[in-house]
Amino acid sequence: MSHSSPIPARDQMNVVIVGHVDHGKSTVVGRLFADTGALPQGKLEAVKAECARTGKVFEYAFLLDALSDEQDQGITIDTARCFFKTARRDYIIIDAPGHIEFLKNMISGAARAEAAALIIDAKEGVRENSRRHGYILAMLGIRQVVVCVNKMDLVGYDQAHFERIEAEYRAFLKGIGAPDPKHFVPVAALHGDNLAVRSDKTPWYRGPTMLECFDGFAKQPSRRDQPLRMPLQAVYKFTARGDEARTFAGRIEAGRVKVGDEVVFSPSNKRARIRSIEGFNTAPRSEIEAGWSTAFTLSEELYLTRGEVMSHAAQAPLVGTRFRANVIWLGRKPFVQGRDYKLKLHTAAVPVRLARIHKVIDASEIGSELAKQEVGRHDVADLELEVKSPVAFDLIGDSECSGRFVIVDGYDVAGGGIITGTVADATDDFRSEARLRDFNWIHGGVTGAERAQSNGHRAALVMFVGGNGVGKRRYARALERALWDDRRQAYMLDGTNVLLGVDHDLAADAAQQELVRRFGEVANILLRAGLVVVSTTNAIGLADHSHVQALLGDQPSLAVDVDPSGSSTAQCDLRIRGDEPEAVVVAQIAALLRARGVLGL
Questions:
Q1: In terms of C-beta distances under 8 Å and separation of at least 24 residues, what long-range contacts does 40-43 make, across chains too?
Q2: Of all residues in the chain, what percent carry a pLDDT higher than 70?
Q3: CATH number, span 224-315
Q4: CATH fold of 320-424, please?
Q5: Residue 181 preceded by cis peptide, ω within 30
Q6: Pairing mode of beta strands 183-186, 145-150
C-alpha cells in the first residue's frame, strides 16, 4: 500500500501597498482580488448589479468597501489585511489609508511587510506622498519594492511618459539613499493591463506583470531559522513545589532552543543551561521555537530582570548605550536634545536622549534636507540615540523584534523607528572586554544567589563621584560603617589602595583607561564575593562612573555625585552638595539600595 507524500506548506508573504491619495491604490487591490479569484463567489457580480441599480459607474475599488461590510459574517478579508493567491504563494496585502496610519502600524508591529508596491498616477506623476512613501519604505527597512505606474490609459499608454516618471522617481530614491526598485510596471488597473496578465496595449514593455513581480520577491527566512531571541518578560519564583527555583518567562520571537542548550542573557552577560521548558497544563517538551510564549528553568539561579534578551552565545545581540536609528516622530511636541524620554525596545524600558541629528528629511521636496535641531511632528529623521544604561539590540536587517522600538514622551507614544547602525561610545572597549571575560568565567561551587541568601542582600557598587576635596571619602567611610553596623557585608574600596598595589607596576603617567580597567576588575571580584562595595574615584582620574559600570555588567550600582557648586550635569542616581549630615546621605543611599532590590532580601 502506497502512502501519499504530505502536501508541503505554501509560502506566505506580506506586501504593503502605498501611494498618494487618488492614485488608484484601492482599484489596484480590488482588481488583483478579482483577477486571482480571491473574491467570495458571486461578490463581483453583486457589486456590479448594485452599481447598475444605483446608477453608479462600477469601480474595482468598491470591492474593498463591500468586503469590509462583511467582516462580522466571518469573511477573512478586510481593508487592512487582504488575501489572495498565485501559483507560487499566498499573499497578505496590507493596505494603509495614509502614511501616518501605515507608520503607526509598522512601528507597533501590527503590520510586518516584507515587500512593497508603490502606486503612482501616470497622469499626475510623482507627488508629495509618492516621495514621502519612498523615504518611509526605506526608513522601515523594506528593501524589495515594485513601482506601479497606474492609469496608463489616461496618457494613451505612452512609453516616453512612463519612462520620464521612472527616471524622476529613481533619481529621487537614489538621492535619499533608498533601495532601487526591482521594477517599474505600466498598469491600467481599471482594465487589468499588466496586473495579472500582460497587456497588448504596451508592446514596448518587456518586463514582468505586477503578479510576476510579487512572485519574484525573495521570502525572508522563517523566524524559527533565525538566531534565538527571547526578550525576558518576567521572573517567577514558585515555592509550592518545595524548591526555590526561578522560572524565566517570555515569548520566543526568533530561533529555537532545547533543553541542555547553553544560553546567554544580554546585556548582563550571564550564562546558564536550559534545565526545563515549562508550560501551564501542557505536555513536557524538550524543544521550543519562535512564536511560543513559554518559560524556562535554568541550571544556575541567576538574578535577571525584565528587558534581558536570551540568545545562544555564538549569535548574541549587540549591547551598547548608543545606536543610529531612523525615526518617525508623531508627538505633538518636537523631539529635542537635552530632554529625557523613554525608549521601549522589546521588553526593555530605559531613559533615552536624542544625542545627534544627522538629517531630517522633508519628503515633499526632491533632495530637500532640513537643517533642523529638532524633529517635528510627522518628520522622518536619521539620528543617534543614547540610553542611560546598556541595552541589548540588533540592526533591523538582522532581527526585527530587537531592531524596532518606540519612544514615549510622558505617557504618550510619541515616535518610533528602526535601528540601522551601532555607534561607538567611550565604554565600548570595557564592555567588550567584560563580555569576553564573563563568557569564559570559571565559577566556584557557591552561586551568587546562595551568597545573597546567606548575606541577606545582593552585591552592589556605590560610587562617590565629583571633584577633589568635596568630601567623597568622608561619605564613603560613613556608608561602609552604617552598612557594617547593620550586619551587611560591606567594604570600602578606595582607588588609592588599588593604585598602591595592583597598579604598582604602572608608570606614573599610565593611561586612565588602564587604571579604570584594573580598578573595575578588582571591584568585579569583590562583587562576585557578594559584598556591597563602597568606592571613590580620585585615584583613577575622577573617571566617569559609566566606564567602571561597563566592566561590571548588570551588577547593581549607584553613582552619588558630590557637587558643592550645583552646576554638575553628569548622570547620577543621587546628587548632594557635600554639606549634608552623613546620616542623611546614608539614609538616602540605603533607600535607593532597597528600591533596587539590593537590601531587604
A1: 40/67, 40/70, 40/75, 43/67
A2: 78
A3: 2.40.30.10
A4: Elongation Factor Tu (Ef-tu); domain 3 (2.40.30)
A5: no
A6: parallel
